[in-house]
Structures are given as C-alpha cells and as structure tokens.
Design goal:
Largest sheet: 2 strands, antiparallel
Order of helices and strands: HEEHHHHHHHHHHHHHH
Radius of gyration: 23 Å
Distance between the termini: 30 Å
Helix content: 55-70%
Number of strands: 2
Shape: globular
Strand order of the largest sheet: 1-2
Length: 472
Amino acid sequence: MSATRTDMPAALPRSNGTGAKTTEDRLSFLVVLYLICVVLPITVHLGSVVLTTLRMLLLVVSVPMLVSLLLGRYGRTIPTDWLFLGHALWLTAALALNNPDRVVQQAPSVGVEFLGGYVVARACIRSRAQFVAMCRVLMLIVLALVPFALLETQTGAPALLKAIRALPGVTSVELVYADKRLGLERVQSVFAHPIHHGLFCSVVFSLVSVGLWGQMARTKHILLSGILALMTFLALSSGALLALALQFGLIAWSLLFRRVEARWRILVATFVALWILVDILSNRGPIQVFMSYATFSAHTAYWRSIIFEWGVMNVFGSAEHGIPSAFFFGIGLNEWIRPAYMHSGSMDNFWLVMAVRYGFPGFLLIALGFAVQVTKLMRLRLAPGHPSLMLRRACVFTFLGLSFTLATVHVWSNIFSFVIFFIGATAWMVQPGAMEEDTPAPSEPGGRRVPSYSRFAPRGGRAPAPYRRAPQ
C-alpha cells in the first residue's frame, strides 16, 4: 500500500481528486442558516403564539431530523441523544402537571429550541472539516458584530436590535439597559441580555484560539483570538469573564506542562484538594466562596447565595419554611417560593432553574447529557499528531467554561438553543472510527511541531500505533 502523504497542510479538506470538496467536507447551508437565526432575533406574534426566526426554522426540520437521528442515519446513537430526548419528554410532563393551560404553547417552543438545535448539529456536523468550517463561520459572525459592539460600549444602545424593532410587522428581544461597569456600557449586541453576548463570544473564543491553532498564520491567529477575547469582555458579565479566565488558565496550564503526560490528572487533583481545603478552613461553603469570586460585587454574591439556598428548598422542600417538595416534577412556570424582600423572580443559575422548573430528574437528564459528552471527549485516546487533538481540547475547554458559566447565569431562547447545538456539534468525535484519519496535525501551542502519523505503513517503515496511550 502506498505511503500516506505527510506534507499536506492540516487545514486542507479531503478532496475527490478534482480539487473540489467532498460532500462530507462541506458545511451544510442549514447550519449557516441556523447560526444566522441565532444572531438575528426577529420575532413575529401570531395571536398568542410567539415565533422567532429560529423557532420557525426548527419547527420545519426538527421532527424529521430527530426521527432520522434515532434511526441511526447520522451515525450510531450516543447516550446524550437519549438523555436529551428524556429531558424533553420530562419537561413536557412537568409542564402538563404544573401548567396544563400553557403546556401546548410552552412545551413545543422550549422543546424545539432544545432538541432542534441539537439534532441540526448532529445531522449536519459529522466530520472534522465540517466542524472546522463551523468554527470559521462563528468567528466571522463575531467579527461582523465588532463595530456595533464598540459603538454600544459608548452609547448603550444595541443598534442592530433597534433596527429590527423598527421594521414593520416584526419585533425582537427587549432592550436591556444595565448599569455601567468599569465606566463602560454593557454590550447586549443581538442577544436577549449582555450575559448571552458574553457567553456566545466565550464559546467562539475557545474554538478559535485553541481549536484552529495551526489553521492560519500565527500573527493572524493571535490577533483574532485577542479580538474574540475583547468581545467577550465587553459583555462585562461575571459569568462570561469567568469562562474566559478559566479558558486562559487551561491554555496556560497546557503550555507550561505540555511535556508532562499526567498534567490534566494533576490539575483535577489540585482542584479537588483546593475544594476540600476551602471547605475545612472557611466558615462558608465552597459554593458560597466560589460565588463571592465569580461576581463583580459582594452584594451580588450574597444575593446569589440566597437564591441558591431558596432554590434548593423549592426542589427538596423545607418544613421550617413551609415549602412543599417539588422533587419529581418541579413547579413548572409558577412562581418559586422565596423571601418577601426578594421582589424579582430572577434566578441566575441555569442548572438550578432546570431543577426548580422540571424537578430533580429533569435537571439530572440534561446535566448527565452534558457530563457524559464531556467525559467521552476527555477519555478519547489520541496520539500527539492526531489532526483532531486541538479541536478536542478546544471542545473540552469550552465545556468546562460553560459548566461554570451556567452556574452563575440563566440562558433561554436563542442562546439556550446554541449551547445545546454546540453539544451536538461535538458528537462526531465520539463516533466509532471518527478519529481514524491520516491527515497531519498542526503544531501545538509553544512552537513544538506535533509528529504526524498515519494508519497506513510508509514505505520502508512501520506504521506507528495511532491509539497508543499519549498525553491528552
């Protein structure tokens, strides 16, 4: 068998011999249309039904794609597929019990944003080339928003949202006028809240800064990563900044200890040790300590600790405060029980909202889907020269950043769908045989060229084992 070429740039897609991209390499137009709908929140009111451009798109494609997914037409089903389907069914049951008058309107809209975003990604992103193309599209979207974001830091007015709301017959998300932070207006951009803008940009930052390493010139890559980090910062959201800081920390750790094979186990062990140490030495719990450092002010941290405490009581019940248990099916869309001085029903914790609204099983199904997916990615055995090594690392960094961010913010509507879309977009990596590629990978950050490998034997030599144990 002839030797595999090792001089082909990693950024080049597979070819059919004519220089054109194969079908497996092209990014589906549906993905591009989906992402455009995410960042162009146009809303139409049809009586009591509220339809966004994203919901209309997903209503058309979700059901047939979901059926095809469960039939295995997009590759073998994975545990996350069934866990997310279980969450969608459970939330429908929870709403039917708690809000029978609203279940017909609410369950399909939430369900289609949740499952719809996931199945679009599962169906349309099934190769490395398609995933890279998706990362590039996301990068271009954020870059296109830069001038509007810079203007908004000075004026406080999201220009694109105001333009959409001025169109006849349609509307958009409400304009949020948040207090200034660090002397700057918080950027809402095209999302329902500045927090959502920051979360979106933090996801793109990780995918580009880590995942596209070696896919473009070094200077250009660093400049673009800096712009994406700036866009995340402009949200001035503690959740987004937490994700950004965590990703910077993980990147720095991978650079400093790139020659240490067990560096990630050491990091996990260090985190566990610090958690135990804080629990022993502090008069507050580790979660409260975490919240105090994950917010802009002590008042916000204290407020969120109260929200967490009372939210948990709403799930498990409290005889002391007369709160009945809502363990199995939550409270649906009803008002949660809280102190009289808490006039706002806002709950800045996505995971807690899932538990309060749909019960502990509803929370567990979506949390397990999230956890199972990131665990499967972390357990992949990739050789140092594997072409998907940096993509996998970017996805894990993004998952970890999201897990902490979602503990400090709530997401809904378009950005909620996008988060689930991202999870679905990583599913191709854990499919059997997905990592058996022979294209050489770029060098890792730090300048050290990662050795390439092939599953085919080169002339005069022996093929290295692509699945040998290697630094992850």
